[in-house]
Amino acid sequence: MVSPVIPPAGSSRAAGRPAEAGRWSAAARVAASVLIATYMAAVILPPLAGPPPASVLAGRLLQPLRPLVGGLALGHGYRFFAPNPGPGHSIRWTIRRADGSAMSGTIPDRDADRPRLLYHRRFMIPEKIAALVPAADAPADVRAESKREWRPLVEDIAAHLLARHGGATVELSLVEHYLPTPEESIRGEQGADAVTPLGMYMSVDTARAAVVGVVPRLTGASR
Amino acid sequence: MTAAISDGVRTAGPPVTAVSARSPVAPAEQGGAAEPGFAASWVAAWNAFWFTPADPLPLALVRVFAGSLLAWSSAVWLLDADGFFGATAWQQPWNVWRMNDQPWQWSWYFVAGSPAAVRLLAGVTLGAAVMLAAGIATPLAAVVSLAGFISGYNRAPLNVFGFDDVLGMLLVAVVVGPSGDVLSVDRLLAPSVRAGRPSVLANIAIRLVQLHLCVIYIFSGCGKLLGGSWWEGTALWGAAANVQYRTLDITWLARHPLVTNVLTLSTLWWEIAYAALVWPRLTRRLTLAMAVPVHLGIGLTMGMMEFGLAMLTANMAFVPAAMLRRLLGGRPPRP
Predict the structure, then answer these.
(1) B231 touches chain A (CB under 8 A)
(2) Residue A3 falls within a domain, yes or no?
(3) Which of A205, A217, B62, B291 is deepest in the core (most CB within 10 A)?
(4) Distance between CA atoms of A107 and A164, rounded to whole angstroms?
(5) Domain count, chain B
(6) Pairwise CB contact (< 8 Å): A19 & B19
(7) How far does B266 lie from chain A, in Å, by closest CA?
(8) Mean pLDDT of all residues in chain B?
(9) What domain count does chain A have?
(10) Are residues A203 and A141 in the same domain?
């Protein structure tokens, strides 16, 4: 007995006609099959090749498909809320102007970032930065190595904020919002958020800033 | 005897136990002659799976929803087009390689030299998406929509998430197949040309969505198996207690740990089993029905309704065309 596997979505048999696998010539079917197999490989290999833990073999098989994967934006891991749903993050910023005034804000801003999809697109900024920033108690060499990855991205965020709001310097920090346990939630307790300085940035080239935007330089401490 | 590959669509026609000569069902079991070889059976199954003409209605519905979601997404990109795609965006163009695989992840925003050009290109995507949803010049609208979508995705890797992953999958399908053959302005303007006949390309396009969706669920489910909270059945609490995501307060779950367990484990095992259970007729309806509370639940409680709708649109690829026609009050397409 063969399992009743169904290919749905309205084959012609839905209209009382027999299946037809042969409307296309054999050559057309072979050509289409090669394209289909290539596309499906470009769909299946990226989540096998990353994020870690990932298969080295999948990574190597993926190499010749990189133009297709990149060209169609297929390089996804699909590990939604994995391995565990963790705490949420935001970035706090404070801009100081030459006249001594200051303004501050957060990314994302629940009140200002509407509609919700706009909020979510900005919410992804701290979430993706947080994925690159190690814990404060991580070994020094790990923190130094990761800093090379996240600092250029944070510099871009700083430059954007300075270009948008004006100002001489901007100070950024990553906030990991405390995730209460069920018991703490019942008791109404809320732990402290973990705050990690991301540095203070300033515009050092006002002439260039006027043309192509602010060029930030890291001047403060960061982990 | 049930066909190894059967229709899955109950119609007024003859029972769907009959199969073509290319069916992998052994002819001997049908009173036939020689049994086809192993390789021939695989070729026949492959051909039947990919190259059987299909009603374009499911693909057209995918087009309507995908186009609408892209139009909404494009409108939201436009609210801060300079911030996402411009020269002083959240991520500078020359730093995109740090998150993307350059030069392959192309984007037309890389060559946009001014804020006006950025907004124009974002507006082109919005216009194409509206046309796609309505089915106006559908093939062209589909290609431009996909190009605009990819350009946004590849230019702003700091700002994309699961919704975009799924939307891209849907847009590839509407480019591949004749998604404008029904439920479209194109069809109204040229009913004889676009008769909505069964099409092999419609079948291929919807198959791509089906298989891609199975890949998404497999990796999403297996990725969760790396985490202890999913095994313990407490993971859902992590989502409920996350203030950054929350749009509906369900922290009352703290007092009902067994409910949290049921919701967590049912979500986990449904995702893992999806690729196996969505194909057999016996379990398909249950599998698809489960998608509704899972994705609407995520949408309502965690503020990701667009992601939920995109996933439900993809799930629609598994709904038989005849059922969709009954729901829409239409007739089966002419062969």
Answers:
(1) no
(2) no
(3) B62
(4) 14
(5) 2
(6) yes
(7) 15
(8) 89
(9) 2
(10) yes
Q: Say whether pLDDT at A167 is over 60.
A: yes
Regarding whether A94 and A77 lie in a shared domain, the answer is: no
- How many angstroms away from the CA of B205 is the closest CA of chain A? 10
Contact A118 B80 (CB under 8 A): yes
Q: What is the mean pLDDT of residues B49-59?
A: 95
Q: What is the mean pLDDT of residues B246-261?
A: 95
Separation of alpha carbons B64 and B145, rounded Å: 13
pLDDT of residue B192: 76
B295 at A interface, C-beta within 8 A: no
Domain that holds residue B281: 217-318
Q: Based on the fold, state whether residues A161 and A119 are members of the same structural domain.
A: yes
Confidence of residue A197 (pLDDT cuts 50, 70, 90): very high
Residues 152-191 of chain B with CB under 8 A from chain A are 153-154, 156-165, 168, 172
Residue B184, exposed/middle/buried by CB under 10 A (0-12, 13-18, 19+)? buried
B302 vs B311: CA distance, rounded Å: 15
Amino acid identity, position B234: T
Amino acid at B156: A
| Interface predicted TM-score of the whole assembly (ipTM), two decimals | 0.88
Q: What is the DSSP letter of B54?
A: B
Residue B274 lies in a domain: yes
User: Would you place residue B35 in the very low, low, confident or very high pLDDT band (cuts 50, 70, 90)?
Assistant: confident
For an interface test with A, the pick among B105, B106, B229, B283 (most A C-beta atoms closer than 10 Å) comes out as B105
Task: Write the single-letter amino acid at B23.
Answer: S
| B12–chain A Cβ distance below 8 A for any pair | yes
